Amino acid sequence: MPEHQRTFLGQLERWGTAAENAALVLLLGGLMLLAVGQIVMRIFFNAGFVWMDEFLKLMVLWIALIASVAASRSGRHLRIDVLSHFMPERLSRLPMFIAEGFAAGICGTLAWQSMRFVKLSYEFGDTVLVDTPAWLAHGIMPIAFGLMSYRFLLSMLREAVHLLRPVVTASVDG
Q: Which CA distances in Å does 83 have to 26, 49, 62, 91?
């Protein structure tokens, strides 16, 4: 077993990864089953659940946000890495440092604003799916954006460590 997986943080990271993957599999499988079930009920039985369309939209929201968290975990989020090819090797990580910092700031702002939205939803007693509190359905937003901001911040700090690391040059003894 690799050293990083033996530590508590390594275990926590593995559990988090497993939880994200399990949530994605369950949500996507459930989404497909419910959508097909709703279609079959409408076509063959001329009936359906009134709340199903809204529930499916909420499932898509949860899938998108959990998948975004998973993408930020593994560095598979959308990025355009053009500048680093034209910069000196010493500074080749600078564009990534800036991009990770920008992404952390944007996701942090989204986490803050979505938390305000969820709080207002709670205070006003908004409901979805007939009579479910809306703050429960939308509570994934501040959590997901907060996790993404945290991961981008950690990635930015890793880039800073690489940028600040002294350059070792090989000397030729003659």
A: 39, 52, 34, 10
DSSP output for 84-102: GGTS-GGGTTHHHHHHHHH
Q: Looking up tokens 């946000």, which residue turns up?
A: 65
* Closest alpha carbon to 66 in 18, 32, 114: 18
Whole-number Å distance between alpha carbons of 143 and 90: 36
Q: Report pLDDT for 101.
A: 93
Closest C-alpha among 57, 60, 2 to residue 28: 60
Which pair of structure tokens corresponds to residue 49? 């659940």
Q: The pTM is what? A: 0.81
> Quick one: 69 exposed, middle or buried, by C-beta within 10 A (0-12, 13-18, 19+)?
buried
Encode pLDDT of 36-69 as tens digits.
Answer: 999 999 999 999 888 999 999 999 999 999 999 9
- Write the single-letter amino acid at 6: R
Q: d(Cα 174, Cα 171) in Å, to the nearest integer?
A: 9
Q: In whole angstroms, give the CA distance from residue 64 to residue 141.
A: 10
